[in-house]
Amino acid sequence: MIVCDWRLYLLDKGQDILLRVLAREKWKGRGLHVSFFGRGLNAESLADLAARLRVRNVSFEGQTTDVPGIWKEHHALVLSSRAEGLPLALVEAMMCGRPCVVTKVGGNAEVVEDGITGFLAAPDEDSIDAALEEACARRGELREMGAAHGAEDSRTGAGEPRRGFRRHTVGPRVPVGFTSGHRTGGSGA
User: Which residue, 69, 102, 104, 111, is most buried by CB atoms nearer than 10 A?
Assistant: First the structure.
């Protein structure tokens, strides 16, 4: 099972692109299921689009605050965004040790290493289709990809990637009061 987004707003988040990919015949017969979490302006429109496209391997779960609970049941995150900053859903997935299939927009490509911690795609149907196909082909490696963010988390049974995530986003930790190996401040130090 895969999770998609926390904000159902297709102009930025591009969930319509993902639904059109899932409407392709090759995805209809597979065991892949995508759960859409959250709420937003386009929640009803996206459910209607899924019905019109006869996409049956999706569900719309609504809003939740139980992030660890989501990741106990789901193996990866997919974001088909057209525009982003650094999405909270991506940060949460990484912090719970889950690999991500994301588009190369905003800060996504800065924190997801293609083929190592997830898969990168352009925000179009064919590219997202190819990234999902690669994720499925490598499904036996998904746990290790998520664990590339850090050590085991007892709450979710997945990686606890605080150290790895920090390494991807801000670099190595420098103690307060030190810079380049020298103590700063104080008198005559």
Answer: 102
